[in-house]
Write a structure and sequence with these properties.
By secondary structure, the chain is mainly alpha-helical. It folds into 2 domains: 3-83 and 93-138 and 348-378, no CATH class; 162-324, no CATH class. Helix content is 57%, strand content 1%. It has 18 helices and 2 strands. The protein has helices at 3-22, 25-31, 59-81, 95-98, 102-113, 120-131, 142-168, 185-189, 204-210, 220-227, 235-249, 259-278, 290-300, 317-320, 324-339, 349-354, 356-364, 368-377, and strands spanning 176-177, 217-218. Helix 9 (204-210) runs antiparallel to helix 11 (235-249) and helix 12 crosses helix 13. Bound molecules: 2-acetamido-2-deoxy-beta-D-glucopyranose (NAG) (5 copies). It holds the Pfam family EF-hand_5. Residues 71-99 are annotated as: Disordered. InterPro entries: EF-hand-dom_pair, EF_Hand_1_Ca_BS, EF_hand_dom.
Length: 379
Protein backbone atom coordinates (compact mmCIF):
# COMPACT_ATOMS: atom_id res chain seq x y z
CA UNK A 1 0.00 0.00 0.00
CA UNK A 2 1.49 3.33 -1.13
CA UNK A 3 1.55 6.57 0.73
CA UNK A 4 -1.23 7.87 -1.53
CA UNK A 5 -3.69 5.17 -0.63
CA UNK A 6 -2.98 5.59 3.09
CA UNK A 7 -3.83 9.25 2.69
CA UNK A 8 -7.03 8.45 0.82
CA UNK A 9 -8.08 5.95 3.47
CA UNK A 10 -7.41 8.47 6.21
CA UNK A 11 -9.50 11.09 4.49
CA UNK A 12 -12.29 8.59 3.95
CA UNK A 13 -12.20 7.59 7.61
CA UNK A 14 -12.34 11.23 8.62
CA UNK A 15 -15.34 11.85 6.37
CA UNK A 16 -17.16 8.83 7.80
CA UNK A 17 -16.49 10.09 11.31
CA UNK A 18 -17.80 13.55 10.47
CA UNK A 19 -20.86 12.04 8.86
CA UNK A 20 -21.56 9.81 11.86
CA UNK A 21 -21.13 12.54 14.43
CA UNK A 22 -23.53 14.87 12.61
CA UNK A 23 -26.12 12.13 12.78
CA UNK A 24 -25.27 11.05 16.26
CA UNK A 25 -28.32 10.09 18.26
CA UNK A 26 -26.91 12.09 21.15
CA UNK A 27 -27.22 15.33 19.24
CA UNK A 28 -30.79 14.54 18.51
CA UNK A 29 -31.54 13.49 21.96
CA UNK A 30 -30.79 16.68 23.79
CA UNK A 31 -33.14 18.60 21.53
CA UNK A 32 -36.13 16.46 22.46
CA UNK A 33 -38.38 18.55 24.58
CA UNK A 34 -41.31 16.17 24.60
CA UNK A 35 -40.48 12.62 25.27
CA UNK A 36 -42.93 10.04 24.16
CA UNK A 37 -44.85 8.63 27.07
CA UNK A 38 -44.75 4.88 27.31
CA UNK A 39 -47.06 2.42 28.89
CA UNK A 40 -45.37 -0.20 30.96
CA UNK A 41 -45.92 -3.45 29.21
CA UNK A 42 -44.77 -5.65 31.95
CA UNK A 43 -46.15 -7.40 34.93
CA UNK A 44 -44.31 -9.65 37.28
CA UNK A 45 -45.27 -11.73 40.21
CA UNK A 46 -41.90 -11.47 41.74
CA UNK A 47 -41.92 -11.67 45.49
CA UNK A 48 -38.63 -9.90 45.63
CA UNK A 49 -38.88 -6.39 46.95
CA UNK A 50 -35.59 -5.23 45.55
CA UNK A 51 -37.17 -4.06 42.29
CA UNK A 52 -40.41 -2.51 43.26
CA UNK A 53 -42.20 -1.04 40.27
CA UNK A 54 -43.03 2.66 40.48
CA UNK A 55 -46.49 3.45 41.78
CA UNK A 56 -48.73 4.81 39.03
CA UNK A 57 -49.48 8.49 39.56
CA UNK A 58 -52.46 9.07 37.27
CA UNK A 59 -55.43 6.70 37.74
CA UNK A 60 -56.44 7.15 34.12
CA UNK A 61 -53.13 5.85 32.88
CA UNK A 62 -53.06 3.17 35.52
CA UNK A 63 -56.32 1.96 34.05
CA UNK A 64 -54.87 1.84 30.55
CA UNK A 65 -51.97 -0.15 31.94
CA UNK A 66 -54.27 -2.52 33.75
CA UNK A 67 -56.24 -3.18 30.57
CA UNK A 68 -53.03 -3.89 28.80
CA UNK A 69 -51.94 -6.20 31.58
CA UNK A 70 -55.23 -8.04 31.60
CA UNK A 71 -54.79 -8.85 27.95
CA UNK A 72 -51.28 -10.10 28.53
CA UNK A 73 -52.57 -12.07 31.42
CA UNK A 74 -55.26 -13.73 29.33
CA UNK A 75 -52.71 -14.62 26.70
CA UNK A 76 -50.38 -16.09 29.24
CA UNK A 77 -53.14 -17.88 31.08
CA UNK A 78 -54.66 -19.44 27.99
CA UNK A 79 -51.42 -20.39 26.35
CA UNK A 80 -49.37 -21.50 29.30
CA UNK A 81 -51.57 -22.50 32.20
CA UNK A 82 -54.20 -24.37 30.27
CA UNK A 83 -52.73 -25.56 27.02
CA UNK A 84 -55.06 -28.53 27.13
CA UNK A 85 -58.06 -26.22 26.77
CA UNK A 86 -56.73 -24.94 23.51
CA UNK A 87 -55.14 -28.04 22.27
CA UNK A 88 -56.80 -27.87 18.91
CA UNK A 89 -55.09 -24.62 17.96
CA UNK A 90 -51.92 -25.20 19.88
CA UNK A 91 -49.44 -26.06 17.19
CA UNK A 92 -51.18 -24.36 14.35
CA UNK A 93 -51.86 -21.14 16.25
CA UNK A 94 -52.74 -18.51 13.69
CA UNK A 95 -50.37 -15.60 13.54
CA UNK A 96 -52.78 -13.11 15.03
CA UNK A 97 -53.25 -15.26 18.12
CA UNK A 98 -49.59 -15.51 18.93
CA UNK A 99 -49.25 -11.73 18.75
CA UNK A 100 -50.17 -9.70 21.81
CA UNK A 101 -52.65 -6.95 21.03
CA UNK A 102 -49.98 -4.60 19.83
CA UNK A 103 -52.53 -2.55 18.01
CA UNK A 104 -54.54 -1.77 21.12
CA UNK A 105 -51.35 -1.12 22.93
CA UNK A 106 -50.14 1.33 20.31
CA UNK A 107 -53.52 3.02 20.29
CA UNK A 108 -53.31 3.57 24.02
CA UNK A 109 -49.85 5.06 23.64
CA UNK A 110 -50.98 7.22 20.76
CA UNK A 111 -53.82 8.39 22.93
CA UNK A 112 -51.67 9.53 25.82
CA UNK A 113 -49.19 11.16 23.47
CA UNK A 114 -51.85 13.08 21.60
CA UNK A 115 -52.00 16.47 23.32
CA UNK A 116 -55.53 17.08 22.14
CA UNK A 117 -56.77 13.88 23.73
CA UNK A 118 -54.50 13.57 26.71
CA UNK A 119 -53.53 16.98 28.00
CA UNK A 120 -51.05 16.57 30.84
CA UNK A 121 -51.72 20.08 32.13
CA UNK A 122 -55.43 19.55 32.43
CA UNK A 123 -54.86 16.14 34.00
CA UNK A 124 -52.80 17.83 36.72
CA UNK A 125 -55.52 20.46 37.16
CA UNK A 126 -58.03 17.68 37.78
CA UNK A 127 -55.79 15.59 40.02
CA UNK A 128 -54.37 18.33 42.22
CA UNK A 129 -57.47 18.88 44.38
CA UNK A 130 -57.87 15.12 44.79
CA UNK A 131 -54.38 14.86 46.26
CA UNK A 132 -54.44 18.11 48.22
CA UNK A 133 -56.90 16.95 50.87
CA UNK A 134 -55.12 16.78 54.20
CA UNK A 135 -55.41 19.72 54.62
CA UNK A 136 -56.75 21.30 51.41
CA UNK A 137 -54.37 24.25 51.47
CA UNK A 138 -53.15 24.47 47.84
CA UNK A 139 -49.97 22.63 48.75
CA UNK A 140 -49.20 18.95 48.32
CA UNK A 141 -46.83 17.72 50.97
CA UNK A 142 -45.03 14.42 51.36
CA UNK A 143 -47.80 12.93 53.43
CA UNK A 144 -50.52 13.81 50.95
CA UNK A 145 -48.56 12.48 48.00
CA UNK A 146 -47.66 9.34 49.94
CA UNK A 147 -51.29 8.64 50.72
CA UNK A 148 -52.20 9.27 47.10
CA UNK A 149 -49.51 6.87 45.88
CA UNK A 150 -50.60 4.32 48.42
CA UNK A 151 -54.20 4.53 47.26
CA UNK A 152 -53.11 3.91 43.66
CA UNK A 153 -50.82 1.08 44.72
CA UNK A 154 -53.53 -0.66 46.72
CA UNK A 155 -55.94 -0.48 43.82
CA UNK A 156 -53.31 -1.97 41.53
CA UNK A 157 -52.43 -4.73 43.94
CA UNK A 158 -56.04 -5.62 44.60
CA UNK A 159 -56.77 -5.77 40.90
CA UNK A 160 -53.96 -8.25 40.38
CA UNK A 161 -55.08 -10.32 43.33
CA UNK A 162 -58.59 -10.40 41.97
CA UNK A 163 -57.38 -11.55 38.60
CA UNK A 164 -55.26 -14.22 40.18
CA UNK A 165 -58.10 -15.26 42.42
CA UNK A 166 -60.35 -15.90 39.43
CA UNK A 167 -57.74 -18.32 38.24
CA UNK A 168 -57.78 -20.31 41.46
CA UNK A 169 -61.43 -20.12 42.34
CA UNK A 170 -62.36 -23.10 40.23
CA UNK A 171 -65.96 -23.45 41.39
CA UNK A 172 -66.53 -19.67 41.09
CA UNK A 173 -68.00 -19.26 44.55
CA UNK A 174 -65.94 -16.15 45.24
CA UNK A 175 -63.59 -17.79 47.74
CA UNK A 176 -60.52 -19.97 47.42
CA UNK A 177 -60.12 -23.15 49.43
CA UNK A 178 -56.77 -24.76 49.98
CA UNK A 179 -57.66 -27.67 47.74
CA UNK A 180 -58.59 -25.24 44.99
CA UNK A 181 -55.37 -23.43 45.49
CA UNK A 182 -52.64 -24.38 43.12
CA UNK A 183 -49.30 -22.65 43.23
CA UNK A 184 -48.75 -20.32 40.27
CA UNK A 185 -47.16 -22.00 37.31
CA UNK A 186 -43.87 -20.28 37.88
CA UNK A 187 -43.56 -22.02 41.22
CA UNK A 188 -44.14 -25.38 39.64
CA UNK A 189 -41.83 -24.74 36.74
CA UNK A 190 -39.22 -22.92 38.84
CA UNK A 191 -36.28 -24.92 39.93
CA UNK A 192 -36.06 -25.49 43.61
CA UNK A 193 -33.33 -22.91 44.15
CA UNK A 194 -35.31 -19.95 42.93
CA UNK A 195 -36.49 -17.30 45.31
CA UNK A 196 -39.61 -18.07 47.24
CA UNK A 197 -39.80 -21.72 46.36
CA UNK A 198 -38.31 -23.08 49.50
CA UNK A 199 -39.93 -20.64 51.87
CA UNK A 200 -43.21 -22.34 52.51
CA UNK A 201 -44.82 -19.49 50.69
CA UNK A 202 -47.21 -21.84 48.94
CA UNK A 203 -47.86 -24.10 51.87
CA UNK A 204 -50.93 -24.75 53.99
CA UNK A 205 -49.49 -22.96 56.99
CA UNK A 206 -49.35 -19.76 54.97
CA UNK A 207 -52.88 -20.36 53.72
CA UNK A 208 -54.20 -20.88 57.24
CA UNK A 209 -52.44 -17.78 58.55
CA UNK A 210 -54.13 -15.74 55.82
CA UNK A 211 -57.53 -17.07 56.75
CA UNK A 212 -58.29 -14.30 59.25
CA UNK A 213 -61.75 -15.50 60.28
CA UNK A 214 -60.74 -19.17 60.22
CA UNK A 215 -63.61 -20.34 58.02
CA UNK A 216 -61.29 -22.49 55.92
CA UNK A 217 -61.52 -20.38 52.76
CA UNK A 218 -60.00 -17.11 51.61
CA UNK A 219 -62.16 -14.26 50.36
CA UNK A 220 -60.65 -11.53 48.25
CA UNK A 221 -59.36 -9.57 51.24
CA UNK A 222 -57.74 -12.64 52.71
CA UNK A 223 -56.42 -13.82 49.37
CA UNK A 224 -54.88 -10.41 48.78
CA UNK A 225 -53.25 -10.65 52.21
CA UNK A 226 -52.05 -14.12 51.30
CA UNK A 227 -50.28 -12.71 48.24
CA UNK A 228 -49.03 -9.60 50.05
CA UNK A 229 -48.45 -10.54 53.68
CA UNK A 230 -46.24 -7.52 54.37
CA UNK A 231 -49.18 -5.21 53.68
CA UNK A 232 -51.61 -7.10 55.83
CA UNK A 233 -52.88 -6.09 59.26
CA UNK A 234 -53.53 -9.72 60.06
CA UNK A 235 -51.34 -10.60 63.07
CA UNK A 236 -51.38 -14.33 62.26
CA UNK A 237 -49.82 -13.46 58.94
CA UNK A 238 -47.22 -11.19 60.52
CA UNK A 239 -46.25 -14.05 62.80
CA UNK A 240 -46.09 -16.46 59.89
CA UNK A 241 -43.80 -14.03 58.08
CA UNK A 242 -41.48 -14.01 61.11
CA UNK A 243 -41.40 -17.79 61.15
CA UNK A 244 -40.49 -17.82 57.48
CA UNK A 245 -37.74 -15.32 58.18
CA UNK A 246 -36.27 -17.59 60.85
CA UNK A 247 -36.54 -20.58 58.54
CA UNK A 248 -34.74 -18.71 55.81
CA UNK A 249 -31.94 -17.28 57.95
CA UNK A 250 -31.39 -20.25 60.19
CA UNK A 251 -28.39 -21.76 58.43
CA UNK A 252 -27.49 -24.13 61.29
CA UNK A 253 -31.09 -25.37 61.50
CA UNK A 254 -31.53 -24.97 65.25
CA UNK A 255 -34.85 -23.13 64.84
CA UNK A 256 -33.51 -19.77 66.00
CA UNK A 257 -31.42 -16.96 64.67
CA UNK A 258 -28.05 -16.52 66.37
CA UNK A 259 -25.96 -13.36 66.13
CA UNK A 260 -23.96 -14.55 63.17
CA UNK A 261 -27.10 -15.43 61.22
CA UNK A 262 -28.57 -12.05 62.19
CA UNK A 263 -25.47 -10.09 61.28
CA UNK A 264 -25.11 -11.65 57.84
CA UNK A 265 -28.36 -10.66 56.22
CA UNK A 266 -31.00 -9.34 58.56
CA UNK A 267 -29.02 -6.49 60.03
CA UNK A 268 -28.17 -5.04 56.64
CA UNK A 269 -31.84 -4.98 55.69
CA UNK A 270 -32.75 -3.13 58.86
CA UNK A 271 -29.89 -0.69 58.47
CA UNK A 272 -30.66 0.05 54.84
CA UNK A 273 -34.27 0.63 55.73
CA UNK A 274 -33.38 3.02 58.54
CA UNK A 275 -30.90 4.87 56.37
CA UNK A 276 -33.40 5.48 53.63
CA UNK A 277 -35.95 6.61 56.17
CA UNK A 278 -33.68 9.08 57.90
CA UNK A 279 -31.47 9.94 54.93
CA UNK A 280 -28.40 9.52 57.05
CA UNK A 281 -25.44 7.53 56.02
CA UNK A 282 -24.00 5.55 58.86
CA UNK A 283 -21.41 3.99 56.59
CA UNK A 284 -19.10 6.73 57.67
CA UNK A 285 -19.18 6.02 61.35
CA UNK A 286 -15.96 4.86 62.95
CA UNK A 287 -17.69 2.06 64.77
CA UNK A 288 -16.89 -1.37 63.61
CA UNK A 289 -20.07 -2.56 61.98
CA UNK A 290 -20.99 -5.12 64.56
CA UNK A 291 -21.37 -2.66 67.45
CA UNK A 292 -24.74 -1.31 66.31
CA UNK A 293 -25.69 -4.81 65.21
CA UNK A 294 -24.95 -6.23 68.67
CA UNK A 295 -26.91 -3.42 70.25
CA UNK A 296 -29.98 -4.11 68.15
CA UNK A 297 -29.63 -7.84 68.63
CA UNK A 298 -29.60 -7.39 72.41
CA UNK A 299 -32.67 -5.15 72.23
CA UNK A 300 -34.60 -7.70 70.20
CA UNK A 301 -33.50 -10.67 72.28
CA UNK A 302 -36.14 -10.16 74.95
CA UNK A 303 -35.47 -13.32 76.93
CA UNK A 304 -31.72 -12.81 76.67
CA UNK A 305 -30.98 -16.35 75.58
CA UNK A 306 -28.61 -15.19 72.82
CA UNK A 307 -30.99 -16.20 70.04
CA UNK A 308 -33.83 -14.48 68.23
CA UNK A 309 -37.05 -16.43 67.99
CA UNK A 310 -39.78 -15.72 65.48
CA UNK A 311 -41.77 -13.60 67.92
CA UNK A 312 -38.65 -11.61 68.79
CA UNK A 313 -38.40 -10.64 65.11
CA UNK A 314 -41.87 -9.05 65.12
CA UNK A 315 -40.62 -5.51 65.91
CA UNK A 316 -38.45 -5.43 62.76
CA UNK A 317 -40.51 -7.56 60.35
CA UNK A 318 -41.83 -4.42 58.65
CA UNK A 319 -38.25 -3.40 57.88
CA UNK A 320 -37.35 -6.84 56.55
CA UNK A 321 -40.40 -6.80 54.29
CA UNK A 322 -41.16 -3.18 53.44
CA UNK A 323 -44.81 -2.48 52.77
CA UNK A 324 -46.43 -0.53 49.97
CA UNK A 325 -46.44 2.44 52.33
CA UNK A 326 -42.66 2.46 52.37
CA UNK A 327 -42.43 2.58 48.57
CA UNK A 328 -45.26 5.09 48.29
CA UNK A 329 -43.38 7.41 50.62
CA UNK A 330 -40.07 6.87 48.88
CA UNK A 331 -41.61 7.79 45.55
CA UNK A 332 -43.41 10.80 47.01
CA UNK A 333 -40.15 12.14 48.41
CA UNK A 334 -38.37 11.57 45.14
CA UNK A 335 -41.03 13.27 43.06
CA UNK A 336 -41.26 16.25 45.38
CA UNK A 337 -37.51 16.70 45.37
CA UNK A 338 -37.60 16.78 41.56
CA UNK A 339 -40.47 19.23 41.08
CA UNK A 340 -40.18 21.45 44.14
CA UNK A 341 -38.99 24.65 42.47
CA UNK A 342 -38.76 26.85 45.56
CA UNK A 343 -37.43 24.01 47.77
CA UNK A 344 -40.00 24.45 50.50
CA UNK A 345 -40.63 20.73 50.64
CA UNK A 346 -44.09 20.78 49.10
CA UNK A 347 -45.67 21.21 45.69
CA UNK A 348 -47.93 23.88 44.31
CA UNK A 349 -50.04 23.40 41.21
CA UNK A 350 -47.79 25.72 39.15
CA UNK A 351 -44.74 23.71 40.23
CA UNK A 352 -46.41 20.53 39.05
CA UNK A 353 -47.52 22.02 35.75
CA UNK A 354 -44.00 23.31 35.28
CA UNK A 355 -42.57 19.79 35.67
CA UNK A 356 -45.26 17.47 34.33
CA UNK A 357 -42.91 14.75 33.16
CA UNK A 358 -41.55 14.26 36.64
CA UNK A 359 -44.91 12.73 37.45
CA UNK A 360 -45.38 10.96 34.21
CA UNK A 361 -41.86 9.70 33.55
CA UNK A 362 -41.62 8.17 36.98
CA UNK A 363 -44.59 6.11 35.99
CA UNK A 364 -43.80 5.23 32.46
CA UNK A 365 -40.10 4.65 32.50
CA UNK A 366 -39.22 1.47 34.25
CA UNK A 367 -35.94 1.86 32.49
CA UNK A 368 -33.34 3.40 34.78
CA UNK A 369 -31.47 5.07 31.95
CA UNK A 370 -34.44 7.07 30.87
CA UNK A 371 -35.11 7.90 34.46
CA UNK A 372 -31.82 9.75 34.71
CA UNK A 373 -32.30 11.18 31.27
CA UNK A 374 -34.96 13.64 32.05
CA UNK A 375 -32.87 15.30 34.72
CA UNK A 376 -30.94 16.87 31.89
CA UNK A 377 -33.86 17.39 29.63
CA UNK A 378 -36.30 19.15 31.85
CA UNK A 379 -34.20 21.50 33.81
C1 LIG B 1 -40.55 -7.93 32.71
O1 LIG B 1 -39.53 -7.38 33.48
C2 LIG B 1 -38.55 -8.31 33.89
C3 LIG B 1 -37.56 -7.59 34.79
O2 LIG B 1 -38.03 -6.37 35.20
C4 LIG B 1 -37.88 -8.91 32.65
O3 LIG B 1 -36.93 -9.86 33.05
C5 LIG B 1 -38.94 -9.55 31.77
O4 LIG B 1 -38.36 -10.03 30.58
C6 LIG B 1 -40.03 -8.57 31.43
N1 LIG B 1 -41.11 -9.23 30.72
C7 LIG B 1 -41.72 -8.70 29.67
C8 LIG B 1 -42.87 -9.49 29.10
O5 LIG B 1 -41.40 -7.62 29.22
C1 LIG C 1 -54.02 21.77 27.79
O1 LIG C 1 -54.86 22.26 28.82
C2 LIG C 1 -54.53 23.55 29.28
C3 LIG C 1 -55.40 23.89 30.44
O2 LIG C 1 -56.61 23.23 30.40
C4 LIG C 1 -54.71 24.53 28.13
O3 LIG C 1 -54.34 25.84 28.55
C5 LIG C 1 -53.82 24.10 26.96
O4 LIG C 1 -54.03 24.96 25.85
C6 LIG C 1 -54.12 22.68 26.55
N1 LIG C 1 -53.17 22.24 25.55
C7 LIG C 1 -53.55 21.66 24.41
C8 LIG C 1 -52.47 21.28 23.48
O5 LIG C 1 -54.72 21.45 24.16
C1 LIG D 1 -55.01 -25.55 58.39
O1 LIG D 1 -56.33 -25.44 58.90
C2 LIG D 1 -57.11 -26.62 58.74
C3 LIG D 1 -58.49 -26.36 59.31
O2 LIG D 1 -59.08 -25.24 58.69
C4 LIG D 1 -56.46 -27.80 59.43
O3 LIG D 1 -57.21 -29.00 59.19
C5 LIG D 1 -55.05 -27.99 58.91
O4 LIG D 1 -54.38 -29.02 59.64
C6 LIG D 1 -54.27 -26.69 59.06
N1 LIG D 1 -52.96 -26.88 58.46
C7 LIG D 1 -51.82 -26.44 58.98
C8 LIG D 1 -50.56 -26.74 58.26
O5 LIG D 1 -51.82 -25.80 60.02
C1 LIG E 1 -63.33 -11.12 53.99
O1 LIG E 1 -63.48 -11.54 55.31
C2 LIG E 1 -63.01 -10.64 56.28
C3 LIG E 1 -63.11 -11.30 57.61
O2 LIG E 1 -62.12 -12.28 57.68
C4 LIG E 1 -63.80 -9.35 56.23
O3 LIG E 1 -63.33 -8.43 57.18
C5 LIG E 1 -63.67 -8.76 54.83
O4 LIG E 1 -64.48 -7.63 54.70
C6 LIG E 1 -64.07 -9.79 53.78
N1 LIG E 1 -63.77 -9.27 52.47
C7 LIG E 1 -64.58 -9.34 51.43
C8 LIG E 1 -64.10 -8.78 50.13
O5 LIG E 1 -65.68 -9.86 51.53
C1 LIG F 1 -54.44 -1.56 58.39
O1 LIG F 1 -54.90 -0.76 59.46
C2 LIG F 1 -54.77 0.64 59.25
C3 LIG F 1 -55.23 1.36 60.49
O2 LIG F 1 -54.94 0.62 61.61
C4 LIG F 1 -55.59 1.05 58.03
O3 LIG F 1 -55.42 2.44 57.79
C5 LIG F 1 -55.13 0.26 56.82
O4 LIG F 1 -55.96 0.56 55.72
C6 LIG F 1 -55.19 -1.23 57.10
N1 LIG F 1 -54.60 -1.94 55.97
C7 LIG F 1 -55.22 -2.94 55.38
C8 LIG F 1 -54.48 -3.57 54.25
O5 LIG F 1 -56.31 -3.35 55.72
Amino acid sequence: MGLGSVLIYSILALLVLLFLSSYSPFNHHSSHRHRRLKLRSNFTFSLSHSHHPPVPFDPLLAELERNREDKQWEQQHIHHSHPQLHHHDDDSAPAHESQPEWEDFMNAEDFINDEDKFNVTSRLLILFPKIDVDPADSFIDVHELTMWNLQQAHREVLHRSQREMELHDKNHDGVVSFSEYDPPTWVKSADKDSFGYDMGWWKEEHFNASDADGDGVLNLTEFNDFLHPADSNNTKLQQWLCKEEVRERDSDRDGKVNFKEFFHGLFDLVRNYDEEESHTDSHHTDNPMDVPARKLFAQLDQDGDGYLSDTELLPIIGKLHPSEYYYAKQQAEYIISQADGDKDGRLTLPEMIENPYVFYSAIFNDDEDEYTDYHDEFR
